[in-house]
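Researcher: We're teaching a course module on how sequence relates to structure. For the next exercise, students receive a sequence and then see the predicted structure as tokens, so they can try to spot secondary structure elements on their own. Here is the exercise chain.
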Amino acid sequence: MIPLTAFFGRLHLLLLHLPIGFLVLAGILVVASRLQKKDAFRSALHLTALVAALSAAAAAGCGWLLAQDGSYDEALLQRHQWFGFASATLAIITWLLRHTKWFHAAIFVTLGAVSLAGHFGGSLTHGEGYLTEPLNREADQSDAMSEDFSGLTAYEARIRPILEKRCTGCHNPNKKKGDLLLDSPEGLLSGGKNGPVLVPGRPDSSALYRRITLPAHDEDRMPPKGKKALSPSEIALIGQWIELGASFSLPADALKVPESADIPVFPPVQVEAVDADVIGLLLKNQVSVTRLGQNIPWLSVSLTGRKNLDAACIQLLKKVKSQVVHLDLGHSNADDALLSALRDMPNLTRVNLSNTPVTNTGLKNLSGLKYLNYLNITNTMVDDGAVETLCALPALQNLYVWKSGMTDAGLEQLKNRVPGMHIDKGAAPDSTTAMLQLRAPKLLYGRNIFEDTVQVMLDFPFKNVGLFYTLDQASPTTQSYRYKGAPLVFDQSVTLRAIAAREGWENSPPVEASFVKRKWSPKTVVLASPPSPKYPGSGAASLSDGQIGPVYTDKTFIGYEGEHLIATLDFGTAIDFHRLSVHYAENNGSWIFAPHGLQVWTSDDGRNWKPCIRAQYPVPGGMQEIKTGIISEPAPQPVKARYLKVKVESLLKNPGWHPGAGQKCWVFADEILVE
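Model: And here is the predicted structure for the students to work with:
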């Protein structure tokens, strides 16, 4: 029923033009008949009025269905809606008056009402003031961008004008597409229903930047098809702003517009998506693989920190050689010989070789990479002898050389030969800048779901760095458990979080993984109601297929909006039940909250139920970090049962402190584990 309603609602965008067109035609016929001083067009005028009345009624009805989407400004929607209903009513009255002296006047009154409804509709779709905006628009100087911006911030001078011109037509208070506002700093920081759009310092991890650099054929690219894309200079400015911290106080002169901005978008070639089995094989061999968006084939591969890279591991990469665009080999043992594999990866745009034994000889393996935009050779033996190799990379715009063998003379030569290249030499020895941040440690393990025990190791490339971890979903600090080198052995479900820390350095960002124990697997799982069509996962199978996802957008999760998740598990025969765990996702910025409660009932026949577990969790008092985790509750006492009914309780509505207070919120889960 819901998809059919949405379909008819969207017909409003087609039908709304019909009454406008026929009413204009009716007005022309009235004027023509008055000029000729005879009623020659009576039949045509009556038919035109009838079609206008019918189409106006249909457009108003479909518009009402479309308004149930709830993503529009309420006040503006009400004005548009009532003028739309009034227009439909007047159109019907006009046709009924076709044999009276008021007929011609009624046509023009109705046309006026339709015009007002159209004005408010245009404001809903494109932003308030859309009709009059061209009258006030100054000359488009987006690509020149040579104004005097003294005293202004980079956001005010550079970023906001771009967003206003290209983005706020769909992301404004009157039309919050994707629940995202791009007309203010607050909107940018809040993000939308898919989470934050800014990750300060990391353009490629920021949805705002990633969406505007997707290939033109990708359905997720913004602005969407049919609207003018951002220019290379505009994309470059947004990328620079995010890389410099996405600060709203950053001065305007901190951003530089390259003369010819060659943006590191995905390569303009068509490749096939990698099969899920290949991704699974890489992950099994401790090769970190991340898809860079839904419905696109491009991958990011990380082997950072690996000191055991060999020919066999490199051979695995050849299975995804055409799809890899980002490759991170930092702090690994990747040497000149192993780098020969890069010759077979023609679509690389970013390569990190920092803290590896690579030399000028190994760097020559990059010479065929015509899309390579970013290269990090920090703390390597690469020196001025690599200038020719670097100059030969046609797309290279971002080079990081701190603590490499390159001298100021070599870098000056490189700058002269490749104008506009950004070269980062790192902080000067006497710099008073903030402490550098450690990279996150690696968690090494073979599986997330286990039936007996699982072993996990923490790894970091330097021995004089401390590793600290928690097992209770708390954020780790230097006061948490200290890792001593031996494998951690878990025989219960747990979420492990870890950081790296060292005096004089900023603690690393936390890294985490959930490990879930399962003793009993149900024969069947039946959901009380289907999940949302937006996040259907694999339906009931998602809760028992042994797969857990790292983020809520993973297809292993199912989502419920404004309702609880209720599932009945049938094990075929009676089992000894003593604990139930649920793996969930949380992203408050996207209106997804951790479960508010957990209830479990047991039964021998699937009809008569006995309460077993009842747990309630507090409502968060503020925005929580984006994460996945586990809720796990023991039965008061072990019980034999064939059936379990599980209710994963949702908050149902966003709490009062949330930007979307009172609106329906989500609960996400992708596995129910029974011990």
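Model: If you want an answer key for the exercise: Residues 122 and 237 are 30 Å apart (CA to CA). The first strand starts at residue 171 and ends at 172.
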